[in-house]
Amino acid sequence: MPRAALLHALLLALLSGGCKSCLAEPPKLGAGIVDGGTLLAEDSLPFRAPISQWAGTLDVRNRYASTVVVETRPPRQGGVDGLCSGILIGPRVVLTAGHCVCTRQRAPLPEAEGQSTLNGSTCETQPTVEIVVYDPPRQGLERMPGYTSRAYEGIEVRPHPEFKLLLDGQDRTKASRADLALILLNAPVEEALSPMPLADTDVQAGEPFLMAGYTYDKIVGGVSGQRRFTQYKVETLMPPGDDRALFKQPGRELFTGDSGGPCLREAPSGAVLVGISSRGFGDRPTFTRTYPYRDWVASELERAARLFPPMPQGHQAPASSGHGGPAP
């Protein structure tokens, strides 16, 4: 078979699983684990291109284990092919993007033909949230480390009351407002994870930040479903009325599953949340700044505490799905 045809067939095979390939077993790594993880070697990819460098660093040391997988189901499928990321901000509260759990609708006005909107009127009611903890890395490991995971069911989705996105006919974001949503879980997380606090100051142009999330690429399946992190720099804040920040990213990034995941400011006292990624949605790399909505988040956390007081000791958690093979 000619080389071009062989590559085409391989790509079709990788893509045929749809979103479910996001959690497919990755290929063998071509390098050992280093501090913070390792990148896939080019030799393990079906063509010679440094695609893996755009995916970031594998979080094998669980620095950002409070970053979770958010999955929605048909017929109310939201997110990027039903898969997004999120961040644990309370014992049973996950913050993600509104577009990760709410579905689009055609704009109702004749002059808006071809456009679509997303708001809080049609949202997933029971998304699944998965927490993944990687096993301790070992020097010389040639495959992905093992992991344990636990799935929690969302029992309530609460998009921000002002959430609204307007997209044109080419899925370019024309307007964005409060692209945030909270997921209340069916039980407090059993893993020893610290909820991520929100920053008490807004981001500024030129400020570096770190984005964490579960990669999902539509061309090469080799790094799909892995929790990775990457450092970027804020380029500019969008004009008044648009609460997003535009950031710089080198090259063309194919990885979109981190939409809904955290954008973090690293401080001596630890990481704090400054935004929620919307990179997988629309046409530009952006995130929604959380600083303008810190009062809403605080009130929602208080509400969750009233609705779900601490569980008594001896509480049985949802069944864990442990895996001894390569981790997502």
Describe this protein with a few key phrases.
18 strands; six-stranded antiparallel β-barrel; disordered C terminus; 11% helix; six-stranded antiparallel barrel; mainly beta
Outline the secondary-structure elements.
Blueprint: H1 3-15, H2 52-55, E1 57-58, E2 67-71, E3 83-90, E4 93-96, H3 98-101, E5 102-106, E6 116-123, E7 128-134, E8 147-159, E9 164-167, E10 173-177, E11 181-185, E12 208-214, E13 227-237, E14 244-248, E15 262-267, E16 270-277, E17 286-289, H4 294-307, E18 320-323
Antiparallel strand pairs: 1-13, 2-3, 2-7, 3-4, 4-11, 5-6, 6-9, 7-8, 8-11, 8-18, 9-10, 12-13, 12-15, 13-14, 14-17, 15-16, 16-17
Could you explain the architecture of this structure?
It is built from four helices and 18 strands. The N terminus and C terminus are likely disordered. Helix content is 11%, strand content 34%. The strands form three sheets. The protein has a six-stranded antiparallel beta barrel. A six-stranded antiparallel barrel has the order 2-3-4-11-8-7. The chain has a single domain, classed as Trypsin-like serine proteases (Thrombin, subunit H), CATH 2.40.10. With 328 residues, it is mainly beta. A hairpin with an 8-residue loop joins strand 16 and strand 17.
